[in-house]
Amino acid sequence: MLEKYFSAPKTLRRLRGGICGPYVDAFADDLNRDGYAPGSAVRYIRAAAHLGCFVHRRGGVLTDIDLNILDSFSCHLHRCRCPHFRRGKISYHAHFGVKLFHRHLVERGICESQPVQEAPATPVLVTAFCDWFRTHRGVREPTLRHYARGATDLLCTLGDDVAQWNARALRDFLLERARQCGTSTTQKLITSLRAFLRFLTFRGECRDDLALAIPAVAHWRLARLPRCLSAEEVNRLIAASNGTTPGRLRDRAILLMLARLGLRSGDVAALRLSDIDWNNGTLQVTGKGRYQVRLPLPQDVGDALLRYLDCRPANVATDHVFLRSNAPCRPFTSGDGVSSVVKHALKRANIDAPARGAHLLRHTAATEMLRNGVPLDQAGLVLRHRSIDMTAYYAKADVALLKQVAQPWPEVKR
Asked: Is there a single domain that holds both residue 70 and residue 141?
């Protein structure tokens, strides 16, 4: 595999002749498998050989390579005088390449894995809370991590004896945290604390009314208009991802799914090949609380998906539909990667949007459905809302319709 990146016999002999030589070809195989660009792979292989030269000059062997050796090598790069390797300005690729090579050696048992600093132990009550929430509510791991932080902080502040907690202590805890963060963070903390206290009540470990002691923050959800794009801006956004490269084809398919079906970012990241029914033209989506629904697959979305799947890396052992475009080619770990696709597309299209994440297109899809005459209950089914009040939030965006039903302002008599 090394011949894919280097052709000069002298260079090949040098790369295979050092102490890293027996493992350079396998390292090149890993880089090719993970989808690294040839130019990056060449730099990473050179960095691996450079690391071997550095260790050999110090009288060491490959098994000596650890995090301390990597730190010493990083310092060496700034004053390097090694033949064949000094190339003036030190690049990011040299630092990252040796980390990849060290990981390669660890996976093959050549080097010992470095001990990872253990995270603080999660309280038993919080672990039980997460298990209960995961089982009975279908909550996903990112939400559980957020809830666990609030519950752990509460236990550490008020103590493990939850039977001694009272309403005053809970209110003081929340107000103290509210002074340290914004309204949105405070609202999320309120949600997690109430859920944790309801769990404790369910187990009979605290008073039944303690969840009511958590005060609310003044916030009116319906006080502002939905943050969305116009139809012209949506067309510009999708056009900004036109192209034939795998990255552009993937971005176009993601943007169309978000804009046409109003999916959440996590829905797109978790989408699997088995969820697409090509014969019936439908798409199965699993949303919050393991709530599953089968949605119609619009023609333009299906066409964009087919074009992307034709060039999707085939050597990745996963059935997730969408993969990262940067090596290593793996599925998105969360919806953040999908939101990043929207963010970069907005920048390419030069759109000054009121928000930058994937939820912007969910708002846009909802308002477009209502503007085109889709009834509230049917729009709610597509958006998978549990309550029609959630869908009614988007009705405010149709100003023309609101003008037809708005009552005239009464005259003020003096």
From this structure: no
In this structure, what DSSP letter does residue 292 have?
E
Q: Are residue 248 and residue 340 in the same domain, yes or no?
A: yes
- Phi/psi for 348 (5° steps) reads -65, -35
| DSSP state at residue 346 | H
Which of 364, 363, 354, 339 has the alpha carbon at shortest distance from 234?
Answer: 364
Along the chain (414 residues), what's the average pLDDT of each consecutive run of 10 residues? 84 86 89 85 89 86 86 83 63 84 88 66 88 85 87 90 89 89 86 91 83 79 72 91 90 93 89 92 82 87 93 83 86 88 92 86 85 80 77 66 63 56
Half-sphere exposure (Cβ direction) of 343: Cα atoms closer than 13 Å? 9
- Shared domain for 142 and 250, answered yes or no, is no
Residues marked active site are found at 264, 288, 359, 362, 385, 394
Bond preceding residue 115 cis, omega within 30 of 0: no
Contact in structure between 160 and 123 (CB atoms under 8 Å): yes
Query: 276: which strand partners?
Result: 283
CA distance 361 to 258: 6
Q: Distance between CA atoms of 407 and 410, rounded to whole angstroms? A: 9
For residue 25, being part of any structural domain is answered with yes
SS3 state at 286: strand
Instruction: Give the CB-side neighbour count of residue 108, counting CA atoms within 13 A.
Output: 14
Same domain? For 324 and 274 the reply is yes
Asked if residue 18 lies in contact with residue 52, where contact means CB atoms within 8 angstroms, the answer is: yes
Per the structure, the complete domain to which residue 396 belongs is given by 231-402
Alpha-carbon span 85 to 87, nearest angstrom:
6
